[in-house]
């Protein structure tokens, strides 16, 4: 049993999305850490410059050891504001000057505590000469976290919005995909059941028509004979359409059996044209054989290859301008057999040529549908050719007919 491709796609997409989200979240965290490190470095530089200025001004440092007066506080505040402007820090701050512990009174100059605590506090220990006690200058930023988020700015907000949008759109896509798959499965199941139900009455109609042709036809007048022929011809067309629908459903499920044997393609062409001869002769058409391939035996399923050729010839008949004029040509190309079917039909515009092998696609001709069918024939042809390791291509111009070329490997 083949794995469910839709659910496999959903699983792979979900894993890929999860990886992208992890990378994006990690990028946001990394950016936040970098911004915080830059802030810490700038805050330490502000504190370092201020401490250096206070250490240099011995008169002021002596007054600080006694008590922090308003004049000293204003001086420290002005120094902090100046250096914060230099290092691009524009948030509220607090500072505090306290006596340093006795254990570090023997330092000379100033020492920074480079580790900021969670409250965003930065500390420097400043000392004068050996006879003077040291003091601690603590600088605190209550809004540090908000400042870092603001510094991240647009990239952070954009990332959060994009992550949210990706999650919402991914959920919607998966939901829609599962819903569409369920509808498709239900539609396919309905079509399969419907076409299977058609097979019994079609078989009965064909049997009754043949019995009518065999036993009653000698007693029928010309109109009666014509009517019986129409019954059989139209019944055969409907049977082929039903087989196409069942065949396409089986192909999609991977359940279409292939009985591959050596097939004489030239003999297959002659046999297939015998079954189509009534339609061609009824329209006073002609078929020209150009069987030039010297090597014309391939390994394949005779029944399906016959259906492929019959489909192409049937299309040539359907889309003929007046009387069908069909040319079937074979040739060799290295290890491949080249088989082409050309017609004198209405042709196909270039914009539609890439879609003719899609299921249910039919070239638009306004509101008039002169040519009957479901648009399954060429889709079936392409699938069968590919299952034989071959390829099919189309060459056509509007109003100048079409040529379908099949390439089949010998192996």
Would you give an account of this structure?
This protein has 411 residues and is an alpha+beta fold. It is built from nine helices and eleven strands. The strands form three sheets. The chain has a five-stranded mixed sheet with strand order 6-8-9-11-10, with helices on one face. A four-stranded antiparallel sheet has the order 1-4-3-2, covered by helices on one side. A hairpin with a 2-residue loop joins strand 8 and strand 9. Helix 1 packs across helix 3, helix 4 runs antiparallel to helix 5 and helix 5 packs across helix 9. It is rod-shaped. The two termini are 26 Å apart. The mean pLDDT is 77.
| Rg from Cα | 43 Å
Order the strands across the largest sheet as they lie in space. Answer: 6-8-9-11-10
Number of E-state strands: 11
Low-confidence stretches: none
What is the number of helices? 9
Largest sheet: 5 strands, mixed
- Global mean pLDDT: 77
- The CA-CA distance between the termini, in Å, is 26 Å
Helix percent band: 55-70%
Shape: rod-shaped
Helix/strand structural class: alpha+beta
Proportion of β residues? 15-25%
SSE run: HHHEEEEHHEHEEHEEHHEE
List the topology elements.
Blueprint: H1 5-56, H2 58-66, H3 70-86, E1 94-99, E2 109-113, E3 121-127, E4 135-140, H4 144-216, H5 222-253, E5 260-264, H6 265-282, E6 286-291, E7 297-301, H7 302-318, E8 325-333, E9 336-342, H8 350-353, H9 377-387, E10 391-396, E11 402-409
Parallel strand pairs: 6-8
Antiparallel strand pairs: 1-4, 2-3, 3-4, 5-7, 8-9, 9-11, 10-11
Helix pairs in contact: 1-3, 1-4, 4-5, 5-9, 6-7, 7-9
